[in-house]
TrEMBL record:
This is Transcriptional regulator. The keyword Signal applies. One of its GO terms (cellular component) is outer membrane-bounded periplasmic space. Belongs to the RseB family. GO terms for molecular function: antisigma factor binding. GO terms for biological process: regulation of polysaccharide biosynthetic process. Keywords: Periplasm, Signal. Residues 1-21 form the signal peptide. The lineage of its organism: Bacteria, Pseudomonadati, Pseudomonadota, Gammaproteobacteria, Pasteurellales. Residues 217-313 form the MucB/RseB C-terminal domain. Pfam families: MucB_RseB, MucB_RseB_C. CDD domains: RseB. InterPro entries: MucB/RseB_C, MucB/RseB_C_sf, MucB/RseB_N, MucB_RseB. Residues 27-192 form the MucB/RseB N-terminal domain. It comes from Haemophilus paraphrohaemolyticus.
Length: 317
């Protein structure tokens, strides 16, 4: 009888607990994922694959006083780590001179969907694909399909319980796999996290002063853009070399809220690089000469789009 009573009490208490409403709409799941990555304390061990190149990484994220702190650590080969602190991104490693740049997000070796604003992605469709299992966790699958052939598609696996991204795949316009992100182990940290005090006491390099950047309108224009892409920023950089020589590099950054590309214009060009394509991991590089100046388009966009953007650049008379 006592067992029956205890079982009944346990059952009634369970019924009395508030039940977490399950998100079913793709846009709600995507927004929940964005909020989770921005506001939760967590640690992810994951694999990032580009073709035959596979990296194993650890990403640790925390928030204190509405400010994000993060550390991205490469777990293979030479020690390399990226630190986010006080809206500054610091790059540390044994194979290069450490440096820091101003910025509020770590973009290297993380999927672009980590930082996307899905409410602004008007040129994509969000398609639910049911549930699956990744890293021993139940995940909701969502396909992000572009409305035209000027950008790439994503497939996402989002943790059903905490909404962190468990897996993502980036495919080009021919459905070839460009990038796979896959979590091996995750750890949610709801109590005191030692990341913030550790990063606050870490000696980090000053912001790189090797080049001077000015955000200002530029004289040259990109006259054709894929639908939905907007100018995010433009800059005028004076880069100093070790030989005390300087070179002017101007750039314009464009984005549709998920896909991005940058157009660089250098003061000098070389004919052998005219109309040359290259691919570096998920990024397309297209080099084009405009007069005697070299123009380079770099981004996660199809090759024909990069070429059309480059050939639309108009220099001042």
């Amino acid at each position: 009888m006592k067992k029956i009573i205890l079982f009944s009490l346990t059952f009634l208490l369970a019924l009395a607990q508030p039940v977490k409403a399950e998100l079913t709409k793709p846009i709600d799941l995507l927004n929940a994922m964005m909020e989770a990555h921005k506001n939760r304390h967590y640690e992810l061990h994951y694999i990032l694959q580009h073709g035959e190149n596979i990296k194993s990484m650890k990403y640790h994220h925390a928030v204190e006083s509405n400010q994000e702190f993060a550390q991205l650590l490469s777990l293979d080969n030479a020690y390399e780590t990226i630190v986010l602190r006080n809206n500054t991104i610091s790059y540390l490693g044994f194979s290069f001179t450490p440096f820091s740049l101003k910025g509020g997000q770590i973009l290297d070796d993380l999927p672009a969907v980590f930082h996307a604003n899905f409410n602004e992605l008007t040129h994509y469709n969000f398609i639910p694909l049911g549930k699956s299992r990744v890293a021993d966790r139940i995940a909701n699958m969502i396909k992000i399909v572009p409305s035209d052939n000027t950008r790439f598609s994503y497939t996402l696996w989002i943790d059903e319980e905490n909404y962190l991204l468990l897996k993502s795949e980036l495919h080009d316009e021919q459905n070839a796999l460009l990038e796979q992100f896959r979590v091996i182990e995750q750890r949610i940290i709801d109590q005191f996290d030692n990341l913030v005090p550790r990063l606050n006491t870490m000696l980090l390099p000053p912001v790189n002063s090797q080049f001077h950047t000015e955000n200002r309108p530029l004289a040259w224009q990109v006259s054709w853009l894929p639908t939905g892409f907007k100018l995010i920023s433009s800059s005028h950089q004076v880069i100093a070399s070790e030989q005390l020589q300087t070179e002017v590099v101007e750039s314009q950054l464009y984005s549709d809220g998920l896909s991005t590309f940058t157009v660089y214009l250098r003061t000098q060009g070389d004919e052998i690089f005219n109309n040359q394509f290259a691919r570096q991991e998920k990024l397309i590089l297209f080099t084009h000469l405009v007069g005697n100046r070299e123009l380079v388009v770099i981004g996660d966009i199809p090759m024909p789009v990069a070429e059309k953007v480059a050939q639309s650049v108009v220099l001042p008379q």
